[in-house]
Amino acid sequence: MTLSEMSQTYQDSAAVIHQRIVTLRQQERTQEDPDQAFRLRQRIDELTPLWREARELAALTAHYYDRSYHKHERYTL
Predict the structure, then answer these.
(1) Cβ neighbours of residue 43 under 8 Å, at least 6 residues apart?
(2) Which phi and psi angles does 69 have, rounded to 5°?
(3) Is 17 left (phi over 0), alpha (psi -120 to 50) or beta?
(4) How far apart are CA 32 and CA 69, in angstroms?
(5) Do residues 6 and 60 make contact, with C-beta atoms less than 8 angstroms apart?
(6) In the chain, which residue ranges form alpha helices assigned H by DSSP?
(7) How far apart are CA 72 and CA 56, in angstroms?
(8) Which CA distances in Å does 64 have to 13, 68, 73?
């Protein structure tokens, strides 16, 4: 698998995670049970870092060999 293919995979994953977050937010807004709303908010909070990481890795793998690209410090040694 090439880095550009990996980048596309990360982008696809980020899109799926983001769509799930959007769906959960809609459910949270319409939820009348406070306990259920809390659980939905908790799930959103758990998915948000995964979404952010997938977006960052998509950008990193897409531009890994570009000389002008400043790599994210979290993913460099």
Answers:
(1) 24
(2) -80, 125
(3) alpha
(4) 47
(5) no
(6) 3-30, 34-62
(7) 8
(8) 19, 10, 13
Contact 67, 51 (CB under 8 A): no
Count of Cβ atoms closer than 10 Å to residue 41 Cβ: 14
The residue type of 30 is T
Residue 16 is encoded by which pair of tokens?
A: 């799926």
User: Whole-structure pTM over 0.70, yes or no?
Assistant: yes
CA 54 to mean position of chain CA atoms: 5
Token pair listed for 59: 């950008």
pLDDT in tens, 32-63: 999 999 999 999 999 999 999 999 999 888 88
Q: Which residue is it, tokens 């769906």?
A: 23
| Residue whose structure tokens are 């994953």 | 13
